[in-house]
Amino acid sequence: MIKRESIDDIISACRIEEVVGDFVRLQKRGVNYIGLCPFHNEKTPSFTVSPAKGIFKCFGCGEAGDSVGFVMKHEHYAYIDALRYLANKYNIEIKETAQTSEEVQLINERESLFAVTACANNFFSKVLYEHEEGKSIGLPYFKERGFSDETIRKFQLGYSPKQRDALLTYALKQGYTQENLEKAGLIIVKSHEANSRPFDRFSDRVMFPIHNFSGKIIAFGGRVLGAVDKHISKYINSPETNIYHKSDVLYGIFQAKTAIKKADKCYLVEGYTDVISLNQAGIENVVASSGTSLTTGQIKLLNKLTDNVTVVYDGDSAGIHAALRAVGMLLKENINLRIILLPPDEDPDSFARHNDLRQIIDYFSENEQDFLGFKINLLLKDLGDDPVKKANFVNQIADDIALIPDIIKVSMFVKQCSALMSVEESILYRAVNKIRIKNYKNEKDKQATGESNIAEIFTTKPQPQTLLDLTPLTLVDIEKKIISLLVNYGNKTLYLPNEDPLAKEKTMEVRVDQFIFDNLRSDEIGFETPLYQKFYNAYVEIVETNPIDITNKLKQYPDAEINNLYLSLIEINPTPSPLWESSKVKSFINTIYNNSEKLLEEVMRTLQMLRLMKLITIKTNYKKLLKEAKSTDEALMYLAKIKEVNLISCEIEKVLGVTYR
Ligand SMILES: [Zn+2]
């Protein structure tokens, strides 16, 4: 664990514009910087960085955060790795809290395995470029495949020489132990007897290092060159180790992650060279499942980046059948699965080499089809006219559809698939619902705590979607507005008419947050929405200890819900174009932002709205009690109370110019 003081040092050293500026070209615009958002595709900049607030916010896609958050999102780092990155950037020494000896041992073991794989990778790339054998055997192989030097370096490709203990000898000389080389899967020790000599796992092969999500090398794939002997497999991979769990890894994910996020889409291929060739051709959002059929771990990894996965296979690939089996798993995780079949005799690797980027993109967009539709067409071919076979087939497809958690998608698929299979929609719906209920019950039996909603399952039928909620402002909206005023204007000053007529000053100054606290306290108003109440409590607590530094304290508050709410509500003066500077909009914005009278009006209005909402709730309550009244006296009392509430709420409505009934 990093010590709290170190975390504070790192965070206070960060200049958001420098941190973001390492990845995004920023232009100064007023007090802020703007640039093209790295998290979604855009042509005009709506990505804003506020040095004063220490945060970034995109008005296009809504991503927002501070320096740490930016590094986490952009590099897909865990919190701790983002801190280490920033510490390194600003040359801050990290102090760590003491760990238990087991923790230390585990971390040390993983760290030393990472060190060993890094050493091996250095060795393989050095051999490829500097060693005679690498230059005459390894490099020509890659060049023949059309890989450029840039690509070779990007994927850190290498060559492992013929000498059976070349890596072992090199690594031992560098100070690494035989034990760790074995634990990292790099050497094979047949027996631990003294006279038995260990040897390299990957000799005489071109090397493909496998990176984890954050770019550390965790394993290797090695391809044998020349005539393939029956006894030697073409590709071999590192075994499972403490740092390599095959089922949780996708080849190319480190190089592809930013492109996947940006395109909100991932192409899935089978082999290393498929990934590399497509990448070199300009399709960067591509990863490979490396021979294994997809696993849940791999899907979870993709799910961090996108919901849209398209498998790219050659027409007669064994991968299609693997994907057909995996389809249920993908649908369950709410992945939108599509497929592209390549022309006969092409695999993604050769296809990428035979076509330019334009041609690839065109082919992909013309030939992409939904996977369920693809499956139906594939299976329909073998079906014939047998009604029993057809019924089985419908059930099989219903099985797939029933796995989709999103009911809107379910109804979409039912429509599509029933048309493809020439079955009535209602028949397919019945089949799907039957399976959903069965699945639900099974799930329920498995885990008694299952939260999914049975009502939702029963109501899965085609129905018009309510697109707009036409109710005007609700209590929740107003509560949110109050929180938003605190977040954005809490430390601003209001000038109120002085209530004491004898006082020298005509106005008195009060901070917006203080004004809101006083009002809510005197009316004994709390928040109905638990999250807003929690945020309000946190805000009060912070202001009481440190009223100056609220922004930072809220950003770093040790509760993700609070940080997120803060980030979703914080406003940065949007200044997207020079046109803006002179437009009316700017003067309007300025009025709200800088005019204390307007601000006062806004705060007062919001507070009054809150009061009104509360009164309406109270009135509804009294009306209910009135209906249940057991005596005339009781009924009269409630009537009087209702009248009283009516009077006050009418007053407020008059002031606000609104009517709520
Ligand atoms: Zn954006």
Count of alpha/pi helices: 29
Tell how many strands the DSSP assignment holds: 18
> What order do the strands of the largest sheet run in, or round the barrel if closed?
1-2-3-4-5
Structural class estimated from helices and strands? alpha+beta
Radius of gyration (Å):
32 Å
| Text of the CATH class of the domain at 100-244 | Alpha Beta
Full CATH superfamily name of the domain at 100-244: DNA primase, catalytic core, N-terminal domain
The fraction of residues in strands falls at: 5-15%
Q: Report the uncertain regions.
A: 448-471, 574-593
Structure description:
The structure is a single chain. Among the domains are: 4-89, DNA Primase, Chain A; 100-244, DNA primase, catalytic core, N-terminal domain (DNA primase DNAg catalytic core, N-terminal domain), CATH 3.90.980.10; 383-458; 475-618, no CATH class. Helix content is 54%, strand content 11%. The chain contains 29 helices and 18 strands. A 5-stranded antiparallel β-sheet has the order 1-2-3-4-5. Strands 13-12-14-15-16 form a 5-stranded mixed β-sheet, sandwiched between helices. Strand 14, helix 13 and strand 15 (336-342) form a beta-alpha-beta unit. Bound molecules: zinc ion (ZN). Zinc ion (ZN) binds at residues 37, 39-40, 47, 58, 60-61, 63.
List the topology elements:
Layout: H1 4-13, H2 16-21, E1 27-29, E2 32-35, E3 47-50, E4 55-58, E5 64-65, H3 67-75, H4 79-89, H5 101-130, H6 132-144, H7 149-154, E6 158-160, H8 166-173, H9 178-183, E7 187-188, E8 199-200, E9 205-211, E10 217-224, E11 235-237, H10 253-263, E12 266-269, H11 272-281, E13 286-288, H12 296-303, E14 308-314, H13 318-332, E15 336-342, H14 348-354, H15 357-367, E16 368-370, H16 371-380, H17 387-402, H18 407-421, H19 425-446, H20 454-458, H21 475-489, E17 493-497, E18 507-511, H22 512-522, H23 530-545, H24 550-555, H25 560-569, H26 578-582, H27 584-594, H28 596-627, H29 632-656
Helix pairs in contact: 3-4, 5-6, 11-14, 16-18, 17-18, 17-19, 18-19, 21-23, 21-28, 28-29
Bound molecules: zinc ion.
